[in-house]
Amino acid sequence: MRHRYGYLDPALLEQLLAGLDLLRLFNQLLLAGGGDPEQAMAWMRQLQAEGYLDPDLDLEAFFAELEKRQMVARDGEGGLQLTTTGERRLRQSAFDQIFRGLRRGGAGYHPVRAVGEGTEPLPETRRWRFGDEWSRIDAVRSLQNALKRTHGDLELAEEDLEVHETEHLTSCATVVAIDISHSMILYGEDRITPAKTVALALTELITTRYPKDALSVILFGDRAERVPISELPYIQAGPYHTNTCEALEMSRGLLARRKHPNKQIFLITDGKPSALTEGGRLYKNPFGLDMKIVNRTLEEADLCRRQRIVVTTFMLATDPSLTDFVEKLTQINRGRAYFASPHDLGEFILADYIRNRRRRVR
User: Fold this and answer.
1) How far apart are the first and last CA of the chain?
2) Is residue 35 part of a domain?
């Protein structure tokens, strides 16, 4: 059975309370409470009783509105549970929290750095060639060419025609792997709630902006297991070790069955692998970094690279030995790593070994 753990970040609560954004506050409490709406409501009542919320606020009316909008509903025993609509709003809230800076874009494909036959028009143009689609003709540039060639007489010829370049588009298969080990809640630092927030934001990004992509979710503690996206709000850390090796191995297996040209793994963890599976049995060592576990995990990262699977790690800890391990894993895989404090997921240090540079992003 997984431990039940709740942590309310004072800084985030202060921000939410300052704006009196009750829905965002409710969603944040939902995440901290493992997706339990009754627990979230109890915390809101407690905040009001302690003076953090205006005593004139009608919380009961707000809770009734949640039921009216079908974000929560009664189960067979009269208790409240999150609905599909509520789960979707929770993902949207997480997305807004982390990806506020994303620009709007088309849905379904990812651009790659090449021009030629594709479906997404670019501002750049070139001379028309036989076989080009007429719908891609840049009428303004073509007429300008004709006027320039004829010195003002509008006589359009084939040599005047210009067409928009297009961008090659591709699809991607993604696995989101989430660490649910005990270290995600150790020492009074809540890492599992930020991990859920990142995962919810990523799934919202992928399902809304890239609906043609394939998406799978894996949880890993002592062992790795695949779960439906709908289970994300209810994830809890437990008395588990961190079997990153099996998480990567299971992810590779899932992606091997996909026909998408691009494949990637989003690894959300505090960075310390402490277990691996040998012949169906669990080998574990929670003390420091066990080189046997580390090397097997790095071998899996290398296998991912050989199968052209990019591993992007969201690192929710700042211990030097753990960040060194993630740096090494990223180098071997030639992937990416984002290092962030659990209390500030809006800012990451991007270690991008594909482009061989380092920059700070928001």
Assistant:
1) 37
2) yes
